[in-house]
Design goal:
Order of helices and strands of chain A: HEHHHEHEHEHEHEHEEHHHEEHEEEH
Radius of gyration of chain A: 22 Å
Number of domains of chain A: 2
Number of strands of chain A: 13
Structural class of chain A: alpha/beta
CATH class of the largest domain in chain A: Alpha Beta
Number of helices of chain A: 14
Strand content of chain A: 5-15%
Oligomer: homodimer
Helix content of chain A: 40-55%
Shape of chain A: globular
Chain lengths: ~400, ~400
């Protein structure tokens, strides 16, 4: 009998920082029949443009010339026509960009991983909001950073206090970048005001570090006015994307479909050039046929049409959730009122744990959601929870919120 | 005028180890008209199963139930039916595996990146052959290892000498794994004998480290007998995949098409469990629709048929190249005689540089290839070159080799 290899000593030090996503583990519970899910936050498949995608795949494979591109290896930067479309799209949102500013990634999750890989030496500091998108914390944590909290809407901390904090535990370690989701944030649903965005740009400018703007949900606005992206504001200040310190992450996962795994990074060519090397060493290139199909789906107004449909689809779901919360939930519980996106963030009374509530909710109310603590880099937030209204129909949302509310009375 | 941010100080230490692939840069030269390319080593698009793929994409998008899977997020492990198919496939090659032993990756390049990420702390040692697959060196180098050379076919080094070497520069650093391409290696085209494979297993067993078996080209055998995979030999020794120390990397890029970006890792569940966390943090999951299409293409004998076609397609190309080399090239030049795969490896006279020959070959002979030095972790190999016969037709291969030979006379 030969003993199994003892793998533990073989792992890199960074493996200590890799944990299973509690959200992903939770998704397994959702396969139970009869559960209304406010977990996940995944797009509603009713919105996927299936017929147009089928046509686009057929077109991509219609001629040998096209097949030779669609099914072959390709350049790591991404499919040219898609990069050009995205550059034009950025221009309509206040950032004059060219294809040289664009890298195609395997969803924006891969962009988060690449930025950790490019920027973080162990011990360096990432400035994040509290709470923050869990997937970003997971991606960055593989590169063993320290986290510090920024509060763009209100903070009395000086830039120097961040820099001082960074060097305290690890001599020579630096603040390397800030990470924010300015529009309809995951998990809170909140949007940063223009004042807060400018304050954040002042901070990162003073610290002389980049800021990563995760724009995953920005297209899904139901009401109110668009706030210029951090990158647009930054380009307005410095005059050009080539001098900008904002690294913008876009994705088609929430507006078209996540299954094609296509996102992008828009940034200074200096950064894009480095990230192309990382893409090359990490997985060569995003599936070309998927990039061709995505380009077909979004060109000629296709993207704008899909956004109109998505907004019209999710808005009544948000309305149902906010109305039910308002009607049913007892005092002492507060929640955000998102103007778009897929999430409502609930703060429970101090003594009520989101995990405790979840265990009861699944058994007694047949409802699932995500306890909020996983979104806090500092382990706080025990009395919070994230609700997504993306999947259930409005009547199911109302019934589900009503059943949770019963548990809180 | 605002100065551009000085990005250099912001990069992680590992960024010093990231270089552009010389191969990828070379691919840009190939767009020049009239060049016969022995560079690249990419599969011939004539072999891509375009009609079957078109049908499979249509099927995946034919019903709302299927669309809801195909275009949605999914579990990081990979699409269940594809994992099961691969487990069965491994069993026919001497490794009794279940789906729990399989992780789907974005090509085997991503598997190389993930193993570097899981196993390497800066300063740790990777044992590689000299030369070695360039993409593996690129993937590992992001995690700042040191390299040492293994010679599975012949070596008088003791296991202890590897362990001693690992700790010399970085106190506490370890030999973490060995990396080999046992079948029709990239870049040499050579295949490790069963004796050499057993010797390698003895070595890694003595060192108590895993070995990464990159099996990218193993299906493309034109003649001779299959040699059991390292993983099959290891399972034969230890009794079970769950106790095996071989981590096997497979890919459909050379047998089906690279554009779907689908490879896999077969390993102990302990390793797979860790790698799933890495997949989750890196890019969530491989495009589900591509996984569904790949499964359709390979099931019911589809994979075996594609392999038969690929072998019949590449064999005459290899024959043409070996025959031309034999007929045309002056003495003092030697080359490998691969029994399969896509590469012939040429050793020039000591004083002749592969880079010098390439610059002349492109201008004077209208032929491109890859100078061999990039495949050596230690900077040696200046007088070597890699020739791929995968793309040109046999007559073009003969003419191209003849024109290179003229430069060597």
């Amino acid at each position: 009998m030969i003993a199994a290899p003892g793998w533990q000593p073989m792992y890199a030090r960074r493996a200590d920082h890799m944990k299973a996503s509690e959200i992903r583990e939770l998704l397994k519970l959702l396969e139970r029949p009869g559960i209304t899910s406010f977990a996940g936050g995944i797009p509603d498949p009713e919105l996927f443009p299936a017929a147009a995608a089928a046509q686009a795949y057929r077109d991509a494979l219609a001629t040998q010339a096209s097949v030779s591109v669609a099914l072959q290896y390709s350049v790591s930067e991404g499919y040219g026509p898609l990069r050009h479309w995205i550059a034009d799209h950025m221009a309509t949102h206040g950032v004059q960009a060219s294809a040289d500013n664009i890298l195609i990634t395997s969803g924006s999750q891969q962009a988060l991983d690449f930025l950790g890989k490019l920027l973080l030496t162990p011990g360096d500091t990432v400035l994040v909001t509290t709470p923050s998108y869990l997937g970003a914390l997971q991606a960055f944590s593989a590169y063993e950073p320290r986290y510090d909290t920024i509060c763009p809407e209100q903070s009395n901390r000086t830039p120097a206090s961040y820099a001082d904090g960074a060097g305290k535990e690890t001599p020579g370690a630096l603040v390397k970048f800030a990470y924010v989701v300015p529009d309809f944030a995951n998990p809170t649903g909140e949007t940063l005001s223009q004042v807060a965005r400018n304050r954040l740009l002042d901070l990162v400018s003073e610290l002389d570090v980049p800021v990563v703007e995760d724009s995953a949900h920005s297209a899904l606005r139901f009401e109110g006015n668009d706030v210029p992206s951090l990158q647009a504001l930054d380009v307005g200040r410095c005059g050009s994307i080539d001098r900008a310190r904002v690294i913008y992450l876009g994705t088609f996962s929430k507006t078209v479909a996540p299954g094609l795994r296509i996102g992008w990074i828009c940034a200074s060519p200096a950064i894009i050039g480095r990230l192309v090397l990382i893409k090359q060493a990490s997985d060569l290139n995003v599936s070309v046929i998927n990039q061709m199909v995505m380009h077909k789906l979004i060109e000629k107004g296709g993207h704008a049409d899909l956004i109109v449909q998505a907004r019209a689809h999710y808005r009544p779901k948000r309305d149902a959730m906010l109305q039910s919360l308002s009607n049913e939930v007892p005092s002492g519980v507060t929640w955000t009122k998102p103007e778009g996106g897929l999430f409502v963030w609930v703060t429970l009374p101090e003594a009520v744990s989101g995990y405790w509530l979840l265990s009861r909710a699944i058994e007694e109310a047949k409802v699932a959601f995500v306890p909020g603590r996983a979104f806090f880099h500092d382990g706080s937030g025990a009395n919070t929870m994230r609700l997504s209204y993306s999947l259930p129909k409005p009547a199911m949302i109302e019934a589900g919120i009503s059943r949770i509310a019963t548990l809180l009375r």
